[in-house]
Amino acid sequence: METKEPFAPSALARPVVPVRLPSIEEHWDCHQCAQCCYGTEILLDEEDLAKLQSQRWDLHPDYRGVRVIQRAGLFRRSVRLAHRPDGTCVFLLPDGLCRIHRDFGLQAKPKLCQAFPFQTVPDPGGALLVVRRSCPSAAAGRGQPVRLDRSDVQEALRARPPLEPIRQPPEVVKGHRLGWSETLRITDWVERFLRDQNYPLVRRVVHTAIFTELLAGCRPARLNRSELGELLDLLAQQAVREAGQYFQQRRPPDRSAQMLFRRIAADYVRLHPRIRLRRCWPHRWWWIKTAWRLGRGRGQLPPLPDQWPGTAMETLDRPLGPLSPELLQPVEEYFAAAACCRAYSFLTRPGWPLVEAIRTVVIGYPVGMWLVRFAAPDRTPTLQDMIEAVMTLDRGERLAALAGGAHRQRLRLLARLGEIPRLAAWYAR
Ligand code: SF4
């Protein structure tokens, strides 16, 4: 977003919580595209508010009568940076730079902006540093390798020090909690599945989905450590054996599963970087019509002028044909990062049992491939379409609606219908 400033190595931040890099190599440099200044909810704490107040924007000729902060929601007490009617941050300049940064320097910005796209995921041993793929440069892996001694990483850690390590592991299934080492064994299996280079990505996702539902049917808290290890091995073998049926003959998911899936996909549509909804009635109306028709699964999805051409519902289910490894690379890397960082369980879904949190990762695959069809209804997908699908999935990880009860219930119903692996196989065509 803005040029990074040189940073003295002697001033390296020393967080109390040890920060590690994940076991994948990530690449990132800011290319000043300003995507992070559109539609992002930048929540402000007391310190951020005090800094903004000292900058006296109320006296600035460009901001007279303009609100620079606003309530984060009708029923929420938190405050965020204000947006313009087109959804951009009130401080974004026409050249893509941040006005606070330009006038007062990096450290004058709210802490969330200073740290983006870096984020730490707490775990029992400290915290893992991850790069948010809602930034297109991170989604495309463009830039230098991410290392802890980079000045921008150190700035990010200084602005937002990692949270305390998690003390208690999440429940594995509702009412069943295991110790840390057993819980991590399960997340290790998820990582092993999703990064297993012996299979194509869709197959790995299906393995993970089946493994998760087999585990959901167990009562693992009654097992000792070695029994759990044996159980996980057996479930993993069973998952690989069962996966074949979804690829021998690809049948569409049943009607109820399709309806639930489209409701989930609709929540992601408005996060797509090519859909920039403004606070105006034509855009609200477009969204109402689109969500309604997606729910029904029939009819024509209306165009959004200058942004999206509209399409017939069937187009969103059409086969894409084989996609090259280069095209799939951003999606591959997104799932590898999701698997090894475990943000799905330790950060973004507090209170969700582990198996339910894993479902949110797995459903990301069919949603991502559906979004590629949505973005390119009348042409062959491009690398840019893939990058934007990944950006959307990352944005969804932090959307309140996708961490709430309705989303959780939809995933439970899909799991009960046994249709999550079928959705993955269907949208991989
Ligand atoms: S989205 Fe990423 S590349 Fe674009 S301005 Fe923000 S940090 Fe830089």
The unreliable regions are 1-15
**Element pattern in H and E:** EEHEEHHEEHHEEHHHHHHEEHHHHHH
Overall geometric form: globular
Write down how many β-strands occur, each being a DSSP E stretch of 2 or more residues.
10
Helix content: 40-55%
**What amount of the residues lies in strands?**
5-15%
Distinct small molecules? iron/sulfur cluster
Task: Label the structural class.
Answer: mainly alpha
Descriptive keywords:
429 residues, mainly alpha, 3-stranded mixed β-sheet, 10 strands, 46% helix, disordered N terminus, binds iron/sulfur cluster
Structural overview:
- The chain is mainly α and 429 residues long.
- It has two domains: 9-159, no CATH class; 168-429, no CATH class.
- It has 17 helices and ten strands.
- The chain has helices spanning 46-54, 99-104, 111-115, 136-140, 151-159, 180-194, 201-216, 225-243, 245-248, 255-269, 281-296, 325-341, 343-346, 354-375, 383-397, 405-417, 420-427, and strands spanning 19-20, 43-44, 69-71, 79-81, 118-123, 126-131, 171-173, 176-177, 300-301, 311-312.
- The strands form four sheets. Strands 1-6-5 form a three-stranded mixed sheet, covered by helices on one side. Strands 2-4-3 form a three-stranded antiparallel sheet.
- The structure holds iron/sulfur cluster.
- Iron/sulfur cluster binds next to helix 4.
